[in-house]
Amino acid sequence: MKITTRLKFAVAGLVGLTTVSTAIIQAGISQMNDDARILNEAGSVRGGSQRFATLTISGRKTDEVAGNINRLLADLARDDNKEISSEAKKLQSNFVKLQAMGTEYQSNPRLLADLTSLSQDFFEEANKMAAAAEKDSQSHVSNLRLLALSTAFINILALAFIGLIIQSISKALTDSTNIVSQSSEQIAATITQQEIQLTEQADSVRTTTTTIEELGSASMQAAIRAENSANEAQKALTLSETGSEAVSRTIEGITDLSARVEAIAEKIMQLSQQTTQIASVSDLVADIANQTNMLSLNAAVEAARAGEQGKGFAVVAGEVRKLADQSKKSAEKINTLISEVQASINSTVMVTDEGTKTAARGITLAIDTAEAFAGIERSINEVFTNTQEISSSSKRQAITVQQAVAAINAINLGSQETASGVAQVKKATNDLVNTTNQLQGIV
What's the rounded Cα separation, in Å, for the pair 21 and 144? Predict the structure, then answer.
């Protein structure tokens, strides 16, 4: 199999692996989004149960909160994770009991302790479901991390294989170049001998013959050099076109990257606004907890004044104060977490902004490079055209001079020595042809 063919297969395999790994990672990201949704719903159920109990104790309507909890539990009960689904179904049954106890409490306030106990049990079960969801999410993250590391390792192996192929190509070209160099030196030496012989023959002919021979030699060298220049110009033109295409693809890639970075920046700004709203709600909860605490203290004072008749109310006031303290502590924890999240978001915004600026600078540099390649391509094209014209003119001149030299009979005296030199030239030329065939077979 040719080296270039193996190189194409290796590059195609690398592209295929990259495409597959990208698709799998995208699927993993989608799964992580589902995990985040489940964690959010589990937390909403946990917080909603406390709000349901609070509204029930205060005698306010609970229909909206109960409906939201039932909807979230129904969605969680359909989850693919059996542990989460089982916990959700268990919570559905417990919430039915909690609703029934809330209804009974409306007509019998003495059931406050039972209502509080059921609410606490429901809260603990909701914590178990949230823990199961968090465990499932961590497992998905670990799998995605392992997949990313495996993909990176495979890509490194593929790149190393491509590097070995390129090294073998370089070695083969170097060896062939050495052979071509040696053959060229032999040809040069033979041509030098022929020039000496022709000069000695020209001495036996008159001045006109000498002049024609020197003109023929100069014309032939000019033709060879012109033809070589044309070939090199053609190669440079091809490389310039390839470079222009590569720069165009680079511009497209950087432009797409810039668009993606801008989209990420927009999402991060939206997330920052949402965390600000959450902080406002948390502050409101803290204020309500403080007010509830004050009301419970006042209620406890009034209950103490009422004596025996106020003991039951004092118990209720104490429980309300505990709930207020817990709400205040939860609000403070939420504010702390929101501050950390906002700090991380600000750092991410700064990094994203730098990435956007870097992508913009990359696009500008790539455009400048593309313009430079275009200018080089135009200049090389002009050089190639002029070189072809010079080569054609030199060849016609060389043919004319050779015809004139052939008309001189004195050159026939050295025909045998010239034939010997031509044989050496032929052998060197055959070596060059064989080396060229080897290069074609490799490349």
Answer: 10
